[in-house]
Design goal:
The protein has 400 residues and is an alpha/beta fold. It is 39% helix and 19% strand. The strands form three sheets. A seven-stranded mixed sheet has the order 8-7-9-10-11-15-16, sandwiched between helices. The protein has a six-stranded mixed sheet with strand order 1-3-2-4-5-6, sandwiched between helices. It has a three-stranded antiparallel sheet with strand order 12-13-14.
Length: 400
């Protein structure tokens, strides 16, 4: 099967409920779906993120069966980008021009999101991030057709830094993947931890897809740091943690992750116990709405939701809310409806800032722990920070 034919379409919703107008027009409207395109990673080392986005769409489809949005069915169309920015742009353009998509989401690497977002003003379509961490997306590379629902890299670094400010650790090694998210987060962490009167003793940037971290692990061990701050995506993080454990480094130097992922916990196992960091969405958050979501998600997929399962679902629910508020899927009207809007998320209250389209939301510091109720390590919430404390100043990566 050719990759471009991997595309899958899922239609949810029911009959139109539009009032007025001839019957045949109402039926035509009911058959005119609201299309959401996902140029996402479905193959290779970062496929776990595209799979999470897809799982969230599938649950959203099930939850909204017979409802739709504005009485219209919702159609999800998936394209595999293979984590390549040029491919992401090409697949996004196909979704817009051939499939008639007005709303894009599911971009995985920040380099993909930056490339696709730059084209959205030309295409007049909206890109909703539920995964991408690069601070630049809502700062120097901001445009009005991009909205970020998820916690950004600087926001994750902020939550971690606030937690570490109260710890006994003083010296840190920063290791970030050599692309936008990794470099942005290391820069943000360095600025914030230095402001807390602590020290980043060294930094390094391995390429995405690194398979052998031995040279980096050697540098980390020689640094005599108290902790190593890690900004590594998916499979890279799993490989690093396994190798660092084999070298005995994680027993001497505390792993501190910009995002503590459930997928890594399952892949690394007990060797990851005690790892701390931020979480953009910990499935253990104790709200009634989240508990109900986790139950439905587990019943459907037989796994517990990871970070981007939760954040993608929140994005879809919020998008549906603002389309309904706008009374139309006209992109300009949806943008206006979304700006300065509120949303009751799985984790708590969200607010969409008009000034930069960054969602203000709670931040979490978590630790990977064992719990007899689960077959794998889970993220235990160590601290929760209010949105206004972990969100940077508008269109910057800086904090007050």
């Amino acid at each position: 099967m050719k990759r471009r034919h991997f595309l899958t379409a899922t239609v949810v919703g029911g009959t139109a409920v539009t009032l007025g107008g001839p019957v045949f027009l109402r039926r035509a409207y009911a058959q005119n779906p609201i299309k959401i395109g996902l140029p996402t990673v479905l193959s290779g080392g970062n496929a776990q993120y595209g799979i999470q986005a897809k799982r969230a769409c599938e649950l959203f489809a099930k939850d909204n069966k017979g409802k739709g949005i504005l009485g219209r069915p919702v159609e999800f169309i998936y394209e595999d980008t293979a984590a390549d920015p040029a491919t992401a742009v090409r697949k996004a353009q196909k979704l817009v021009e051939k499939d008639g998509v007005k709303f894009l989401t599911g971009t995985v690497l920040s380099s993909e999101a930056l490339a696709v977002s730059a084209k959205c003003p030309e295409w007049k379509v909206l890109l909703m991030s539920t995964i991408n961490g690069a601070g630049a997306l809502t700062a120097k590379s901001y445009n009005r057709y991009f909205f970020r629902i998820n916690t950004s890299g600087p926001m994750g670094a902020r939550a971690v830094s606030l937690y570490l400010a109260e710890s006994s650790m003083k010296r840190f090694f920063a290791l970030g993947s050599d692309y936008a998210w990794g470099r942005d987060s290391v820069q943000s962490f360095t600025a914030q931890i230095t402001a807390a009167k602590k020290e980043v003793v060294a930094k390094d940037y391995p390429p995405v897809g690194t398979k052998d971290f031995a040279s980096y692990i050697g540098k980390i061990k020689q640094s005599k740091a108290d902790g190593v701050y890690l900004v590594l995506p998916g499979q890279d993080a799993t490989i690093f943690l396994k190798q660092a454990h084999q070298f005995g480094v994680t027993r001497e130097i505390k792993p501190i992750m910009e995002i503590v992922e459930l997928e890594n916990m399952k892949a690394v196992g007990d060797a990851m116990e005690g790892t701390i960091g931020s979480s953009r969405y910990p499935f253990t958050v104790d709200t009634p709405k989240n508990k109900a979501f986790v139950k439905r998600f587990h019943e459907m997929h037989n796994v517990y939701p990871d970070m981007f399962d939760g954040e993608t679902y929140e994005g879809l629910e919020w998008l549906a809310q603002v389309i309904t508020k706008a009374g139309s899927d006209d992109v300009e009207k949806v943008i206006e409806a979304w700006e300065d809007s509120k949303y009751d998320g799985l984790e708590g209250p969200f607010f969409m800032r008009k000034c930069d389209h960054q969602a203000v939301q709670p931040g979490f510091a978590v630790q990977a722990v064992k719990d007899p109720k689960y077959p794998h390590l889970i993220p235990k919430i160590l601290a929760t920070y209010p949105g206004d404390k972990v969100t940077p100043k508008c269109r910057t990566e800086e904090f007050a």
